[in-house]
Amino acid sequence: MILRKLNLSKITLHLMFITMSLAFILPLILVVSISFTNEKWLMLDGYRFWPKEFSSAAYQYVFSGAGSILNAYAVTIFVTVVGTLLHLLITAMLSYSLTRPEVKHRRALTFFVYLPVLFNGGLVPQYILLTQILHLKDTIWVLIIVYLVSTVNVLIMKNFFRTIPDSLIESARMDGSGEIRTFFQIVLPLSKPALATIGLFVTIAYWNDWMTASLYIESPNLRPLQYLLQSLMNNIGYLQSNAQASKSMEAAIGMLPSEGARMATCVLAIGPIILLYPLLQKYFEKGLTIGAVKE
Question: Which of 269, 157, 275, 274 is nearest to 224 (CA)?
């Protein structure tokens, strides 16, 4: 009887996880299928998990300005990689210093770090700071600096560093290790789960950011991928909304792979993130559980 109950609970648990997995996977499969479907059949038959007629017209349209797409990819990759590394370095150094008892006024510094969560200056002071004081408008560094520090990530890393025994750090000091060497050779290697978890969140934030470019970037060579794809979708919508002006324009717009192009841009935008997640998955759960528990 007990074995039957255990088997029933296992089956129920497996069915629940299978259902949740399908709920996440099937929409992604549908998006990929739509991006490779002929626009005519999309209008006639709607969405299908398997294309009735394969077509790469959506990707050809998206890559019609191949130079701008590749340049946007390069900008996004640079901003994501450099921004994530700098964010992790600054967050780890700040969090570690706030956990050390020998740092004076660390409680006041912790409150100063936490204060922006309670009182945020808003967009206007940020715009004035970045454009008129730091003079970062229309530079690639403005895309990096906006996400350089996060209060939530600092608090997570701070709680994680508390789990590292003080005796380990004291032993390193007794062996002649300085603060910088102790931090980079002992503390950081032990912090891989928390760093990987925060790194994944920050990578997604940098990769999906288009608002910053719309506010501070004017040069076409500095536009990231998400901003370019957003502009592409807005252009398609604008052309379709004004297609009634003339029959010739209406016919031309009818040939645009609008739905397929939207799904193709989704595939291009989420592809690298999907490939990144399995590499960090083994650290993800541990980093969340350890960093989120306060002693």
Answer: 269
Angle formed at CA 24 by CA 20 and CA 26, multiple of 5 degrees: 110
Cα–Cα distance for residue pair 132/11, rounded to 1 Å: 62
Give Cα separations from 159 to 24, 44, 208, 284 (angstroms).
31, 56, 28, 16
Q: What is the rounded distance in angstroms from the CA atom of residue 156 to the CA atom of residue 289? A: 10
Distance CA 196, CA 287 (A): 7
> What secondary structure letter does DSSP report for 220?
G
| For the chain, counts of helices (H) and of strands (E) | 16, 0
Tell me what pLDDT residue 280 has.
61
Q: What is the pTM of this model?
A: 0.74
- Residues 200 and 284: beta-carbon distance below 8 Å: yes
Residue 290 has pLDDT above 60, yes or no: no
Q: What rounded mean pLDDT belongs to the chain?
A: 77
Tens of pLDDT, residues 8-52: 777 888 888 888 888 878 888 888 887 787 776 666 676 777 777
Measured distance CA(31)–CA(14) in Å, rounded = 26
pLDDT higher than threshold 60 for residue 250: no
Task: Indicate the burial class of 11 (C-beta count within 10 angstroms; 0-12, 13-18, 19 or more).
Answer: exposed
pLDDT for residue 105: 82
Hey, which residues does 54 pair with through a beta bridge? Answer: 37
Dihedral (Cα; 100, 102, 104, 105), 10-degree rounding: 40
Q: Which residues contact 42 (CB under 8 A, 6 or more apart)?
A: 34, 259, 260
For residue 162 the two structure tokens come to 């508390």
Better-scored residue on pLDDT, 52 or 5: 52
The tokens describing 292, both together, are 């989120």
Q: Is 250 helix (H, G, I), strand (E, B) or coil?
A: helix
Q: 């592809």: which residue's tokens?
A: 271
